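User: My collaborator sent over this chain with a note saying "see what the structure looks like." That's all I know about it. Can you take a look?
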Amino acid sequence: MTPIAQQIKNSLSLKDFDPKPAMMRMAPARDAVEAPPAGARLGATMGVLYEMERQVWVVLAKRPMTLRNHPGQVAFPGGRCEPNETFLETALRETEEEVGLAPHFIEVLGSLSPVYIPPSNFYVSPFVGWHDGLPNLTPSPDEVSRIIDVPLQALTTPDCIGEINPIGDWRFPAYLVEGEKVWGATAVILSELIARLTAVDFFTRM
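Assistant: Without extra context I'll predict from the sequence alone. Here is the result:
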């Protein structure tokens, strides 16, 4: 494991770290960080990280407008758990299906706090994985319309945070990246990851 990957892994297992303030900073509603209702559907995501040009990047995928759940949104690779499948198995399977990255290329570093998504009634368990170098991705055209690689450090700047109003007059916080607005569960997960990395001085050491 590289020293950078080890730092990230350490940030995911910090003792006495409260993730809720960071999650709420980008949450559309308090429901996102609370326990899910009975009968919520279970899912998992994988945040694939890699180092390039002395920065750590995260792989995001834009959903096609043809999908029933969250069309057009930018998200981590992920999806619904199959019967008798663990959350991690789901995250790895969906990553391979959506962006063509096989599990043996991913070094799993740990997990982040689960997030509840009220509109689709999903309770999502996010994982963080490391890829050695720039990944060679083959996105599925049925599930991904665009791959978006984002340097994590860019998400720490104030001008990277804006708003989106997808439902009437309601305005939600969003990350502004590559001409896209990253909001909802993906923004919540990213916010916790950024907070954890900041807590271990990750960005000042890069």
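A starting point for your reply to your collaborator: The mean pLDDT is 90.
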